[in-house]
Amino acid sequence: DWNMEDVLEEQIKHVRSMVGPDEHVICGLSGGVDSTVAAVLVHKAIGDRLHCLFVDNGLLRYQERERVMSSFRNELHLPVTCIDASENFLGKLKGVKDPERKRKIIGEEFIHVFEGFAPKVGEEVGRNPLFLVQGTLYPDVIESCPPPGSGRNHSHTIKSHHNVGGLPERMNLKLIEPLKLLFKDEVRRLGKFLNVPESFLKRHPFPGPGLAVRVLGDVTEGNALNILREVDEIFIQAIKDAGLYDSIWQAFAVFLPVRTVGVQGDQRTHANAVVLRAITSEDGMTADWYYFDHKFLIDVVSKICNQVRGVNRVCQDITSKPPATVEWE
Ligand code: XMP
């Protein structure tokens, strides 16, 4: 139970001792708590010799890119470049249905984008960056890899967009991990101390592969991603309006590549089904499904069916983990 003032002071000293006076550092921002707090800390230590990258992979949520970029720039004053790589990611994902292949493709694309970013920074500032910031936490350090053959990328092996295995070695970058000794709640306290807005500190976790693990099968088929974005936004807004956001560990919608028959007005429809999932959890390793009251569910389902074209059926996932995982892929 450390004093965050001391942690901050110590880490700033440490970063300054690692990074020479004309050396540069890059950092991938995912929009999540860990990478944001890590970047703000390093920025405090070395100023604009930090160069952050936010990648739009085409798998982000409703208006997410605009929202987080505006916060990074206007509220946190971080030097951040946004690269729109959505066409690359979606192009590579076209026709791919296997969940593990989807994850692998996304991981490789992130590496490509990063490998392009470092030399661009180098050109701009006259020398190549030598360091990479990662928002690794203490549990990531102590927990071992997922069991061999489990085939899943658990949150502690791929924590966020930039935390892609093998990247520092391949690019010859030294790691800066200022949160390495902290637990999640301590990162939140440190973030609060650094004036990181609540909107970052209290955000639900979001997986590195983004909406790709929430559109089952081929993510590029039809209008699936946009439909999912609209449904997800209505669901999350309703949760916030009801004051429930902070009591839920994670909530999101899933798009099913399944069409069912419905009736809207006096029209027969043949449209997609979506799933709502909300859970409580301590660490994501086990989870319980969250119980909404009837009124909340009635309102949110009617909003979704009335406002989102292409959806005529809404299901709720009432499976805990185990036996299910949190994500559907
Ligand atoms: P699962 O689906 O494994 O999810 O029960 C547990 C927690 O981890 C998140 N998750 C991921 N996070 N990269 C990430 O950064 C991933 O590949 C990934 N897969 C799952 C998931 O959202 C949940 O919070």
Which secondary structure elements does this structure contain, and how are they paired or packed?
Elements: H1 4-18, E1 25-29, H2 33-46, E2 50-56, H3 64-75, E3 80-84, H4 86-93, H5 99-125, E4 131-133, H6 138-142, H7 167-171, E5 174-176, H8 184-193, H9 198-201, H10 224-241, E6 250-264, E7 267-280, E8 288-289, H11 294-307, E9 311-316
Bound molecules: xanthosine-5'-monophosphate (XMP).
Residues 103, 152-155, 158-160, 205, 207-209, 250, 284, 321, 325-327 line the site of xanthosine-5'-monophosphate.
Task: Supply database-style keywords.
Rossmann fold; GMP Synthetase, Chain A, domain 3; 329 residues; 2 domains; binds xanthosine-5'-monophosphate; ligase; purine biosynthesis; GMP synthase [glutamine-hydrolyzing]; 5-stranded parallel β-sheet; single chain; ATP binding; 11 helices; 4-stranded mixed β-sheet
Distance between the termini: 36 Å
Overall mean pLDDT score?
Answer: 92
Structural class: alpha/beta
In total, how many domains does the architecture comprise? 2
Oligomeric state of the chains in view? single chain
3D shape: globular
Helix coverage percent: 40-55%
Number of helices: 11
User: What percentage of amino acids are in beta strands?
Assistant: 15-25%
> So, CATH architecture of the largest domain?
3-Layer(aba) Sandwich
Q: What is the strand arrangement across the widest sheet?
A: 3-2-1-4-5
Total strand count, please?
A: 9
Radius of gyration: 21 Å
Sheet with most strands? 5 strands, parallel
CATH superfamily label of the largest domain: HUPs
Uncertain spans, ≥5 residues at pLDDT below 50? 144-163
**What is the H/E order?**
HEHEHEHHEHHEHHHEEEHE
* CATH topology type of the largest domain: Rossmann fold
**Ligand names:** xanthosine-5'-monophosphate
Q: What top-tier CATH class of the largest domain fits best?
A: Alpha Beta
